[in-house]
Amino acid sequence: MEENAYRRKGVAALIAIKGDIEGRVVLDLSPEVAIKSGEPTCGSEIEASEQVVRETVCELANMVIGNSVTLLNDQGFTSKCFRRKST
Fold first, then answer.
1. How far apart are CA 35 and CA 53, in angstroms?
2. Which pLDDT does position 21 carry in this prediction?
């Protein structure tokens, strides 16, 4: 995917993976979906603000990518994740 070809639709976190396997992963969620997805993690209802939505998207991205990299590392691949930005 060309970097300039992607158009964000909601709040997005971009994670770069470096190592034996390299690439980028984008998690792009509408603010409403981000808040609803983050509520089970918090164990309560979340009051939406721009900062909370961004933090929620970044935390969800960290959880998904962290689990994925752990599974890859368990299979013998060496990779690390770097959050590049959230918008």
1. 6
2. 83
Backbone angles phi, psi at 39, to 5 degrees: -60, -40
Contact 54, 86 (CB under 8 A): yes
Complete DSSP assignment for 5-24: G----SEEEEEEEEESS-EE
Burial class from Cβ neighbours inside 10 Å (0-12, 13-18, 19+) for residue 31 reads middle
The structure tokens listed for 44 are 């309560």
Tokens linked to 56: 């929620």
Placement of tokens 């992963």 in the chain: 25
Amino acid making up residue 61:
A
In this prediction the pTM is 0.71
Which long-range CB contacts under 8 A does 67-75 form with residues at least 24 apart? 69/17, 72/20, 72/21
Instruction: Summarize the confidence of residues 6-27 as an average pLDDT.
Output: 86
